[in-house]
Amino acid sequence: MSLMDFVLNVVLGAVLGSLGGLFGIGGGLIAIPALGVLFGLDQQLAQGTALVMVVPNVMLALWRYHQRNRINPRHALILAASGFVFALLGARWAVSLDAEQMRIAFIVFLVLLAFYTVLRLFSPAVHSSGELRYPWPWLGMLGAGAGLTGGLLAVGGAVVATPVLTMVFGVTQVAAQGLSLALALPSTVVTLVTYALHDHVNWLLAIPLAIGGLLSISWGVRLAHALPERVLKALFAVFLLVCAVLLGLKV
Questions:
Q1: How far apart are CA 239 and CA 234, in angstroms?
Q2: Long-range interactions of 237-240: CB distance < 8 A, separation 24+
Q3: Which of 52, 60, 96, 202 places its Cα 20 to 30 Å from the Cα of 209?
Q4: H/E element, 201
Q5: Backbone phi, psi, residue 171, to 5°
């Protein structure tokens, strides 16, 4: 890799990191289709490479969200523990699947999630707060489902957990994104290890992406706390659709 390629990859990582901080997802959701389109990586290799950037991004973004909007440690722990166990199962399943089938499944997942997010924008307003509408043990079920999805699709489960936390559990968008990062941290680590052990990581590409992400993710977190909640949700829906279109170009 030339110096120019390294610098360009750092810049790309910075863009992805900013988006990851804005939406509380670590950047993997857009990094995966970007790696497939720009670098021609197959689905598993794109997912594993993206995770090298996502893991440190999630760590830093979680700390930044906690500084601005304190995360309940009990809620974070149950999400993280259940997410970890099921992410391990999902990751072991993912490395054995056909790459093209994985890509199509990922596109369908993004479109359905975007559609759901748009429906929430036009549904009657639901009171949101920093407190849970249901008892905290129910978070274990959410962690299990999000962890399995994260292990399978390498998106850390945060993209699944965020809308459920806002719509079902009644927390604010920003609080939901912080809790989702707590869920994502252990599950992304175990998913990365699983992908790496199966040689589904391009380390030369992943390292500059991770550097760029770490340099920029705090900007995205700051912007997320500055935007109105409805605007943040609308941007999230558009973001999902753009990712689906980018990935669809490779099918």
A1: 9
A2: 237/114, 237/117, 237/118, 237/121, 238/114, 239/19, 239/23, 239/29, 239/30, 240/29, 240/110, 240/111, 240/113, 240/114, 240/117, 240/159
A3: 96
A4: none
A5: -90, 165
d(CA 14, CA 11): 5
For 152-191, the pLDDT digits (tens) are 766 656 677 877 888 788 888 778 878 888 887 887 888 8
pLDDT 10s digits, 224-249: 878 887 888 788 888 778 777 766 76
Q: How many helices and strands (H and E) does the chain possess?
A: 10, 0
C-alpha to C-alpha distance for 49 and 44, rounded to whole angstroms? 9
Q: For residues 210-243, b (16+ Cβ closer than 10 Å) or e, as one string?
A: bbbbbbbbbebbeebeeeeeeebbbbbbebbbeb
Q: 27 φ, ψ to 5°?
A: 95, -10
Name the 3-class secondary structure at 16.
helix
Q: How many CB atoms lie within 10 A of CB 115?
A: 13
Q: Determine the distance from the C-alpha atom of residue 222 to the mean position of all C-alpha atoms in its chain, rounded to a whole number.
A: 17
Q: Do 124 and 158 touch, CB atoms closer than 8 A?
A: no
